Amino acid sequence: MSTSQQPDPRDRPARLTVGVVGAGRVGPALAASLQLAGHRPVAVSGVSDASRRRAAEMLPDVPLVPPAEVLRRADLVLLTVPDDALPGLVEGLAETGAVRPGQLLVHTSGRYGAKVLDPALRAGALPLALHPAMTFTGAPVDVQRLAGCSFGVTAPQELRLAAEALVIEMGGEPEWIAEEMRPLYHAALALGANHLVTLVAQSMELLREAGVSAPDRMLGPLLGAALDNALRSGDAALTGPVARGDAGTVAAHVTELRKYAPQTVAGYLAMARATADRALAHGLLKPELAEDLLGVLATGTDGAEGDAR
Fold it and tell me: What one-character DSSP code corresponds to residue 171?
């Protein structure tokens, strides 16, 4: 049996020094992933106590320094700050002379493409937008989750290969997104991932109210199957009372939600209307059943309330 061991990444010559501006949930994970690929994190900036603890856990022995010092030390800088803070950060770094010619400047915002880095580009930096389509916890497990994760990549054409190579080194799959399509791309991800969390949390609360002791255990197999079916079959995977045109069942749902969780009614009705529209368009909801259903969704009742007025 062979006793040869794989070389430790720390023993390989580092190709780039890496800095992180903004030690939120994303930056340390990406830097740790780049470290596994042979690059060397050398500096990180963080303001809150939580970000400092996160940096210490995921990037041990990497010094915490101000943002300008991160740029001074690193060949590749990850700007991992909230979307709304990114333009001001880039302008400030460029205006103060912190940006160096030839420096790779990478932001991870889904909303923005490479143009938000134009102030740094004018200072000679090489701008890349690399957005991981993944939810992050701020824990070391995030590094493993990058394996096979898609990245929305936007960069000048001459830097496209460099951008895609960095994504591949982090274990990701590059997906080219045109500059003008970035907001739509990001809206699509938010619609699917962020709203899913809200829907699942509301469902769990309602199940607890109904007396279910372990709503997570009940929902896990159901939601896993629903997600798998949706990814495989799209609208053909639609099931449930809306797709069947069961107006009475939907009206009963709304009545119960108004009684026990009125804050969920607007969301239920909005999603049911969207589901009905898609089910109709794809021939799943029979037109003769749609009228009563759409009436319930329009009034939020079974019609009795409207008749009384």
Answer: T
What span, in angstroms and rounded, lies between the C-alpha atoms of 218 and 270?
Answer: 25
Question: How much is the CA Rg of the chain, to the nearest whole Å?
Answer: 25
Q: Judge residue 82's burial from the number of C-beta atoms within 10 Å of its C-beta, 0-12 exposed, 13-18 middle, 19 or more buried.
A: exposed
The mean pLDDT value for 159-181 works out to 97
> pLDDT grade, residue 301 (50/70/90)?
low
If pLDDT is split at 50, 70 and 90, which confidence band does 200 have? very high
Q: Measure the CA–CA gap between 136 and 31, rounded to whole angstroms.
A: 14
Cβ atoms within 10 A of the Cβ of 267, count?
Answer: 14
Contact between 182 and 152 (Cβ < 8 Å)? yes
Amino acid at 115: K
Contacts of residue 101, defined as CB under 8 A and 6 or more positions apart, other chains included, come to 123, 124, 125
Mean pLDDT of 94-100: 96
Q: Is 157 exposed, middle or buried (0-12, 13-18, 19+ CB in 10 A)?
A: exposed
Q: In angstroms, rounded to a whole number, what is the distance separating the alpha carbons of residues 234 and 227? A: 10
Q: Cβ(99)–Cβ(67) under 8 Å?
A: no
| Between residues 186 and 303, the one the model is more confident about | 186
User: What pTM was estimated for this model as a whole?
Assistant: 0.85
Quick one: CA torsion of 274, 279, 280, 282, rounded to 10 degrees? 120
Closest-CA residue to 252 (of 239, 242, 238, 237): 242
Report d(CA 165, CA 279) in Å as an integer. 41
What strand order describes the sheet that includes 150-154? 40-45, 17-21, 76-79, 104-107, 126-132, 150-154, 173-176
Backbone angles phi, psi at 229, to 5 degrees: -65, -40
